[in-house]
Amino acid sequence: MKTPKLLLSFLCAGLLSAGASLSAADKPLSVGFSQIGAESGWRTANTDSIKAEAAKRGIDLKFADAQQKQENQIKALRSFIAQGVDVIAFSPVVETGWEPVLKEIKSAGIPVVLSDRAVKVSDPSLFVTFIGSDFVEEGRRAGEWLAKKTGGKAVIAELVGTPGSAPAIDRKKGFEEVLAKNPGMKIVKSQSGNFTRAEGKQVMEAFLKSPDAKQITALFAHNDDMALGAIQAIEEAGLKPGKDIIIVSIDGVKGAFEAMAAGKLNCTVECNPQIGPQLFDLIAKVAAGQKVPARVAVQEGVFDETQAAAELPNRKY
Ligand code: AHR
After folding, report:
1. Which of 251, 272, 300 to mutate to test the pocket of ligand 1 (most atoms within 8 A of CB)?
2. Which site among 89, 145, 196, 260 is 20 to 30 Å from 305 CA-CA?
3. Cα-to-centroid distance, 251 and ligand 1 (Å)
């Protein structure tokens, strides 16, 4: 049962008058976290990891879901300033447009930790540290796997992540680095599916309806959710995903392993969302004024269809 607010204040007043006061050290650390949304299985696992770790550590977490809108994230960041939290952390939906609000946070003397995605700012002192994956490397890994699988010959359709987001920009960059070394591999279709399964399906349907659809031999999806949507579109078009069209994607969610075990997806490059423990280690150090590295990387691997069945029981997200 919830204790009514009024009763609580009487109890507190009683305690304080009896000489018991809450020292700053007894106060739980308060952290404002602005999450992008719930666009993918990856994001849901990331949110779960952050909330579970905060609860485990007794952190007063003020969590806000921005429903994939930068304006909502900016509002949430301003409300964290107003609430006077100890540390602000957030996963920026896109890379640019953060400078004004970051300056406001800096003026309020609140340290900022970036989680999962980076920002582009001219003043690096606007945030303390960034913990997240190396998205360029993930794109490279996807490209290298595809080059090996196809002997360097592929006509590729690309499902891009949210326009302007760090993973969409960096994964494309890493993948294209590999294409530059493999002249037999080229991207013939490229469009955003916004990291969601529904849009991944829609865009793949459009790709497959285009007059030159027959030449597509491979799909690079910037995340598993879009790949899973595309698999549905490929099947509905009467083709065999994983065979008629070789598919490589990024994240390593359970659904991707199930699709690999069923022979419908060929490879997923891991992007680990379970960064709650590492994130709060970092936040604790930042709050204590300790020195932290400017960039903290997350360890990840690459899994293909030959490893899917064995790895599936180990997947936690
Ligand atoms: O920023 C990480 C990316 O965001 C994940 O790959 C994607 O699934 C998510 O929505």
Report:
1. 251
2. 196
3. 7
